[in-house]
């Protein structure tokens, strides 16, 4: 079968690989109909998340159709249409039963202390092949796979595999509640979804901080207030917008690949910390293989974390869902301590939130489709990776159509195009428009 494969730092390709097989009674084989590229995938190519094995299939977001199940899978059958949550969990250990699926005791071959398992990641994350392929083996399928009604189409469902659960989790970590003023640092896919999730959880005001023009435009289309960190100091701007107090909650959706402002007052402040950021970067990505402006690790690994701590009000809460691998050793603890902040962070417990999000989409309360800005296919996957990596205009969220057989085509979900809870009724491009843009 065809799959997107990690070949080395700065090197990925579309390769022929063996089809997966059932290895355990609780496995399922899923024929992938739709996959997507996530910012986390870029960490592996940039070098900010080490431990990848050559030949690893990438990707941890997918929608598909069950092809085969092991003898222990009693709740699914071939032909069922499903969304695949990004992280893997057994469902029976104490952590899973408490809802902490990302900290499952049994999923990681490294043992109970080894941490989160997800598809298409390094050996420390379970060493599982990913979902940017024609077929995938899904361990603990009886727990992980979430059935989809035909009222939820592939364009909606693919965003429920990782992006929306992570954003929902981020709002929960930040303790967003009724009337809160919330800042979201980062307007990539997760930051965009966090606007809707914070609003659904009661946020009164939402301020989004980023430096990429079209991403700020998308945030404004969702009626968030925006701050361009290349035009103004984001901390000062947020304080000014909140009467000098700061926001109640911050959702930090950037992580280790944060970039310094290229100009403006914030660039001057970052320049004064260039030596410190340089040390952090060498620590975060000791090995890298950039290709010009592509596959370049972030040049200010803790900048988003610093801004989050600085722009939240005293006694506020910061929820961090931007990825920080273990080798990152720096955080502004002193400033957070002196402000009595609550800091919460970690990998999303996807399986805890996916069923509820599927119900929200099926009922018309949430329509995630406006976040899909490019719809391509696996033949163009490598170029799509490159465009997404460089944050080119229009490449905020890239979805890959893998197979048309068994899909519910984009735009055919009952609530598709409504923009409910996202763009407040302003739909994104139609499936035909998105496909045409992807091929252009």
From TrEMBL:
**Could you tell me which residues belong to the region Disordered?**
259-299, 413-440
- Keyword Zinc appears in the UniProt entry: yes
Matching entries from Pfam families are given as: ADH_N, ADH_zinc_N
Q: Which GO terms describe its molecular function?
A: oxidoreductase activity; zinc ion binding
Alphabetical keyword list: Metal-binding, Oxidoreductase, Zinc
Q: PROSITE patterns attached here?
A: ADH_ZINC
Q: Which co-factors does it depend on?
A: Zn(2+)
Can you tell me where the transmembrane regions are? none
Residues forming the Enoyl reductase (ER) domain are: 8-400
Family assignment from sequence similarity: Belongs to the zinc-containing alcohol dehydrogenase family.
Name of this chain's protein: Glutathione-dependent formaldehyde dehydrogenase
């Amino acid at each position: 079968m065809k799959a997107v494969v990690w070949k080395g730092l700065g090197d990925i390709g579309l390769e022929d690989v063996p089809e997966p097989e059932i290895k355990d009674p609780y496995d399922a084989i899923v024929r992938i109909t739709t996959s997507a590229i996530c910012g986390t995938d870029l960490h592996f190519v940039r070098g900010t998340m080490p431990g990848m094995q050559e030949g690893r299939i990438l990707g941890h977001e997918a929608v598909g159709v069950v092809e085969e199940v092991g003898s222990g899978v009693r709740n699914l059958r071939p032909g069922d249409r499903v969304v695949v949550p990004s992280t893997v969990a057994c469902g029976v250990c104490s952590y899973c039963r408490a809802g902490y699926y990302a900290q499952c005791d049994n999923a990681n071959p490294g043992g109970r202390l080894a941490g989160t398992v997800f598809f298409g990641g390094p050996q420390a994350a379970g060493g599982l092949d990913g979902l940017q392929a024609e077929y995938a083996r899904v361990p603990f399928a009886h727990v992980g796979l979430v059935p989809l009604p035909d009222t939820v189409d592939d364009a909606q469902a693919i965003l429920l595999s990782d992006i929306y659960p992570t954003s929902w989790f981020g709002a929960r970590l930040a303790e967003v509640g009724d009337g809160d003023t919330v800042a979201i640092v980062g307007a990539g896919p997760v930051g965009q979804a966090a606007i809707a999730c914070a609003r659904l959880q009661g946020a009164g005001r939402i301020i989004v901080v980023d430096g990429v023009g079209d991403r700020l435009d998308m945030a404004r289309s969702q009626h968030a207030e925006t701050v361009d960190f290349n035009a103004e100091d984001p901390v000062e701007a947020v304080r000014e917008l909140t009467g000098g107090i700061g926001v109640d909650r911050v959702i930090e959706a950037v992580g280790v690949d944060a970039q310094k402002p290229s100009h403006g007052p914030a660039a001057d402040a970052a320049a004064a910390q260039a030596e410190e950021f340089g040390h952090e970067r060498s620590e975060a990505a000791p090995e890298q293989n950039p290709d010009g402006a592509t596959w370049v690790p972030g040049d200010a690994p803790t900048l988003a974390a610093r801004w989050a701590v600085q722009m939240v009000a005293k006694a506020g809460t910061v929820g961090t869902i931007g990825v920080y691998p273990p080798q990152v050793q720096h955080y502004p603890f002193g400033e957070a301590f002196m402000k009595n902040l609550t800091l919460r962070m970690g990998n999303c417990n996807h399986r805890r939130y996916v069923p509820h999000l599927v119900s929200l989409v099926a009922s018309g309360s949430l329509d995630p489709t406006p976040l899909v800005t490019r719809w391509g296919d696996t033949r163009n996957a490598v170029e799509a990776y490159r465009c997404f990596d460089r944050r080119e205009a229009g490449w905020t969220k890239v979805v890959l159509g893998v197979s048309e057989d068994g899909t519910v085509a984009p735009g055919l979900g009952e609530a598709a195009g409504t923009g409910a809870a996202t763009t407040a009724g302003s739909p994104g491009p139609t499936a035909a428009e998105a496909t045409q843009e992807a091929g252009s």
